[in-house]
Amino acid sequence: MSREQHITRTFLELADTLVEDFDVIDFLHQMTVRCQELLDITAAAVFLAHPEPRLHSPAPCDPSPALQDLLNTACHQGPALDAVTTQRPTTLHSGNDAALRWPQFASDLERAGYTQATAVPMRLRRDVLGSLLLLHTGTRTLNPEDFALAQALASAATIGLLHARTITHQHTVNEQLHTALYSRIVIEQAKGLLAARENITLNHAFDALRHHARDHRVLLSNVARDVIDREFTPSIPPARPRAHPSDTE
Length: 249
Description:
Elements: H1 3-14, H2 24-38, E1 43-48, E2 54-58, H3 65-74, H4 79-86, E3 90-93, H5 96-101, H6 103-111, E4 116-124, E5 127-136, H7 144-168, H8 172-198, H9 202-215, H10 220-229
């Protein structure tokens, strides 16, 4: 699959919210996975701005204590929160400037082994839902094309969530957003168990969970609980190749 095909497929996934069994947990988790696949980053996380800034879904399974500390700090200072309050993209490079601006975040960033953090707002006109945080380990910054793609992904996700919230005519989506952090833990545990059990990658394991949930019209978190509690093993789909910018076919 070429990178262009992968990008097209991702936007089609993000547009698939106008369905009865829309699962916001699946939706946001899938977004962080696709960011890792399409962009030159190491990790991604979605932050929700309401009712207070909080982490939804980091892409790495079972984050290390240092990474978890970084993500917890990001709820209170750093690019993710700044992107929400200013409604503008924010990039932070490790170094003296970073330490002066956000001392705790800069310290946690370095301790977790990351060199840069980029955040783009998830907004549509006056509606700001949160931000998308991208973490880097190398010296290369996002090029203009990848930066534009990151913002486009965040905007597409925002539109999808707002559409889903509108068609429910209730607070179902908001309630799912508030419980997403806890469901994420179950999903991450199931990914790790399934990956170890079937000797596959974490992203491949997530695709298996997601395909089963969609094929059988059940919540992703329920499938994850079955994997953990009942040792259930869903069908494993063909592995999706990682799309690099240099891919041509």
